Amino acid sequence: MSALRQNANFKWMMRGSVISLLGDQMTMIALPWLVLRLTGSTLALGLVIALMSIPRAVFILLGGALVDRYSPKRVLMLSKYANAVLLALLALLVMNADAAPTVPLGESLSLTIALTPQLTLRLIYVLAFGIGLAQAFGIPSGTSMMPLALPREHLQAANGVMMGLRQVSMLAGPLLAAGLLAVAGGDARGLALAFGFDCLSFLVSAWTLSRVRPLATAAPQSAPQSVLRSVGAGLRMVWDDVPLRQCFIYWSIVSLFIGGTMQVAIPVLASDLHGASTLGFLMAAHGLGTLMGMGVAAKFGARLRFASFGVMILLMDAVAGLLVAPLGLVHAAWQAAALMLSLGLLTGYMQINVFTWIQRRVAPQMMGRAMSIFMFIFMGLAPLSAASAGWLLTLIPLSQLFIGGGMILVLFAAAAYLFTPMRNITSTTA
Q1: Are 421 and 346 in contact (CB under 8 A)?
Q2: Residues 192, 31: contact at Cβ < 8 Å?
Q3: Most confident listed range (48-62, 92-106, 137-151)
Q4: Distance, C-alpha 348 to centroid of its chain
Q5: 90 φ/ψ angles, rounded to the nearest 5 degrees
Q6: 325-335 burial by CB neighbour count: b if 16+ within 10 A, else e?
Q7: Distance in angstroms (rounded) separating the CA atoms of residues 323 and 250
């Protein structure tokens, strides 16, 4: 760590990461609140989340191919500039929609465009799709930057620092966003400031990234393999590894039925309790719990391993389901925050264990494709769950959605334990 702190590339990357992560958390709070403020529709909220997530999932493999063909730094810079432009447009849209009923199209034109809530929502759909598309290229380029900028012996420590910073941002970012929206009264000015801060964060992180110098010893980029052939090889690798296949199938089912539910249900729960500040409070509690869970996993590691890897996954999911079920029955923000803190604790602990298991099990030359498939499970299937949750909330109360989602997760974990070999999966390498 002492040598890592002296590395100029790491310091520039860490500075950019801190400001960018805080900005991302601002948008995560402001965008759902904007949609609910405009429409009050849970279906519209689910569609916005889906429009951000679907292009990110569909095009992430193409983004990885472009990273192989061109410099990861170049692709990441372009994605940051694209995000900055889209967020600037979103901030201007919010301000204009609230400030005046019409916006002139030009001095020489007599036409005007009325920014009604319906039209504003359509423009938000377009911008959300664009943000998701930019992220499809930013995620693979961002994960490919560190090996080109740091010596190999520093990668593990650097990854640990960056993952910790991400969790800290999940604590500090929602609190900052909640404070900003509370001071502004949750109106357009506060929302525009949140989007503007995220826009500025992308510009600042792009500048810090420009200061990063790839290592002179970094290997030149080889000619990329055909995207379809590369993806096929990765899928065959996952399918042939039976424990990996069982876990990936189980995670796919859980993500499809449960994964996006919380993305829609938590903002609605916050709206029912107090408002935008409550949403930030709940997300901060989850971020704090995740950070604590990661700390426990990093500190104690295998000493807390009380069962096989497969049994531990299923048991943790069952406990998570029992924590999700009562969320719709709470009547105070602190009660929801306590449940979110507990869920975050499980999330952080399992995230470290799952990533370590995959990294130890998959061959290095297949790691990128294995992780791409792993990310696709959550980025590709969770949006379908989010859209379905938004639709379901038009038919059933929020409490029934939480209870049903929690019980489904418990039943999935129990069925996997009783009827599949997942309980026999160990932490040993393939």
Answers
A1: no
A2: no
A3: 48-62
A4: 14
A5: -65, -40
A6: bebbebeebee
A7: 20
How many CB atoms sit inside 10 A of residue 220's CB?
4
102: phi then psi, degrees, rounded to nearest 5: -130, 155
Among residues 166, 181, 168, 164, the alpha carbon closest in space to that of 29 is found at: 181
Q: Tell me which amino acid residue 280 is.
A: G
Could you give the CA distance from residue 288 to residue 345 in angstroms, rounded to a whole number?
A: 8
Q: Residue 285 has which token pair?
A: 């509690």
Instruction: Show the domains of the chain with their CATH numbers.
Output: 7-212 (1.20.1250.20), 227-430 (1.20.1250.20)
Q: Which of 167, 143, 133, 156 has the alpha carbon at shortest distance from 58?
A: 133
- Residue 246 contacts residue 297 (beta carbons within 8 Å): no
Q: Which helix (H) or strand (E) holds 423?
A: none
Counting Cα atoms < 13 Å in the Cβ hemisphere of 166 gives 11
The Cα diameter of the chain in Å comes to 74
The tens digit of pLDDT for each residue in 63-110 reads 766 776 677 788 888 999 999 999 998 888 887 765 544 333 333 333
84-93: pLDDT as tens digits: 999 998 888 8
Question: Which token pair is 409?
Answer: 């997760």
Residue with tokens 């929609």: 97
Residue type at 46 in one-letter notation: G
C-alpha distances (whole Å) from 409 to each of 319, 347, 372 are 9, 14, 24
* Measured distance CA(138)–CA(366) in Å, rounded: 20
Q: Would the pTM of this model clear 0.90, i.e. be above it?
A: no
Specify the amino acid at residue 151: P
CA dist 238 and 240 (Å) reads 6
DSSP string, 277-304: HHHHHHHHHHHHHHHHHHHHHHHHGGGG
- Amino acid identity of 399? S
Length of the chain: 430
